[in-house]
Amino acid sequence: MWGDLSTTVLIVAFLAAGGVIFFSGLRMAGLADKIADRTGLGEAIIGAVLLGAATSLSGIIVSVTAALDGRASLAFANSVGGIAAQTVFLAVADMFYRKVNLEHAAADLGNVFQGIVLMVLLTLPFVALTTPEYTIWAVHPVSFAIPLVYAAGLVAGRRVHEAPMWTPVETNATKTDQPEEEDAESKAESTLRLFLTFGLLMLLMGVAGYVIAKTASELADRVQISDTLVGALGTAYVTSMPELVTTVAAVRKGALQLAVGGIIGGNTFDTLFLTASDVAYRDGSLYHAVGDQDYFWIVSALLMTGLLIGGLILRQRQGPGRIGTESLLLLLIYAGAVALQVVVG
């Protein structure tokens, strides 16, 4: 079916699916903030779990579809390339928060902890790479470990939220997570309706993700560029647009913990793409089927995540109108990674 379409139609379909993801993500930020207030779970938890998972749905559809088609590099690079892209979105969001450095104002121990969990998850593919290519039902054991570590991180993260053993020092620039007073129109909208609307947007993003996977694969074949380049800089970027939209929207409305938690939580959830892709990839271990260029994006994501956590702990206080040093470094590292990938790929 997709091979019968013209290149112009494929490009239009790719862009249209990206538009669906963009506008769905824009609506999700407001819904997630309301759900965080209604449920009392807090912006960091809702951002990490609900918003992070929802905005990642289109990406996981892309990776699984690519893996089913036997395109290991596209599936792998879409996952880890998206993590790097989404991390740099916090640097972009920092530009929209003009009062003080975003990482200073959004002090939250839950986000720091989830960032550490993310770094642990990102090391697991290297465990697979440096061990024998052993599989169970064509699935590497590391793929079973990833969701277990993810789940354990969520449970521990909830404990950190409810009974923190460390707390950030509050300054006059710290923006705490306080439920906002809803207007009469918002109060009239039931919590059930909020969840149903959120679910419908997730469904739309899932369909859009499938279209992106199919059109991107076909376009890659026609213009003869590597699946790694398409995955890391094409599908990963388009499917990550909800994170950019929701992060900037959350920052502009003052939901800073939701913004940071949505990025870190989305990145943590994105590691599950690897498990899903390895299960869908029927030719053996996904981790041994990809190359150095694919693992390069894990290295980039690890480096960027480490800098982000450092920024959340250091809490640099830049003056109004200036972004933090870690945000500048994130932008430079990502730009360098993209330039190197384009040259190599």
UniProtKB/TrEMBL annotation:
<keyword id="KW-0812">Transmembrane</keyword>
<feature type="transmembrane region" description="Helical">
    <location>
        <begin position="194"/>
        <end position="213"/>
    </location>
</feature>
<feature type="transmembrane region" description="Helical">
    <location>
        <begin position="44"/>
        <end position="68"/>
    </location>
</feature>
<feature type="domain" description="Sodium/calcium exchanger membrane region">
    <location>
        <begin position="10"/>
        <end position="130"/>
    </location>
</feature>
<dbReference type="GO" id="GO:0005886">
    <property type="term" value="C:plasma membrane"/>
</dbReference>
<feature type="transmembrane region" description="Helical">
    <location>
        <begin position="134"/>
        <end position="156"/>
    </location>
</feature>
<protein>
    <submittedName>
        <fullName>Sodium:calcium antiporter</fullName>
    </submittedName>
</protein>
<feature type="transmembrane region" description="Helical">
    <location>
        <begin position="326"/>
        <end position="344"/>
    </location>
</feature>
<dbReference type="Pfam" id="PF01699">
    <property type="entry name" value="Na_Ca_ex"/>
</dbReference>
<keyword id="KW-1133">Transmembrane helix</keyword>
<dbReference type="InterPro" id="IPR004837">
    <property type="entry name" value="NaCa_Exmemb"/>
</dbReference>
<keyword id="KW-0472">Membrane</keyword>
<feature type="transmembrane region" description="Helical">
    <location>
        <begin position="74"/>
        <end position="97"/>
    </location>
</feature>
<dbReference type="GO" id="GO:0005262">
    <property type="term" value="F:calcium channel activity"/>
</dbReference>
<feature type="transmembrane region" description="Helical">
    <location>
        <begin position="295"/>
        <end position="314"/>
    </location>
</feature>
<dbReference type="GO" id="GO:0008273">
    <property type="term" value="F:calcium, potassium:sodium antiporter activity"/>
</dbReference>
<feature type="transmembrane region" description="Helical">
    <location>
        <begin position="6"/>
        <end position="23"/>
    </location>
</feature>
<dbReference type="GO" id="GO:0006874">
    <property type="term" value="P:intracellular calcium ion homeostasis"/>
</dbReference>
<feature type="transmembrane region" description="Helical">
    <location>
        <begin position="109"/>
        <end position="128"/>
    </location>
</feature>
<dbReference type="InterPro" id="IPR004481">
    <property type="entry name" value="K/Na/Ca-exchanger"/>
</dbReference>
<feature type="domain" description="Sodium/calcium exchanger membrane region">
    <location>
        <begin position="195"/>
        <end position="342"/>
    </location>
</feature>
<dbReference type="InterPro" id="IPR044880">
    <property type="entry name" value="NCX_ion-bd_dom_sf"/>
</dbReference>
